[in-house]
Amino acid sequence: MVGLAAAVFLTDIYRQRSERQAAAIAMTKGDPARAPAIFRRYGCAGCHTIPGIEGADGKVGGDLSGLRERVYIAGVLNNSADNLVGWIVTPQAYSPKTAMPATGISEAEARDLAAYLYGR
Question: Which of 85, 88, 87 is nearest to 111 (CA)?
Answer without folding.
Answer: 85
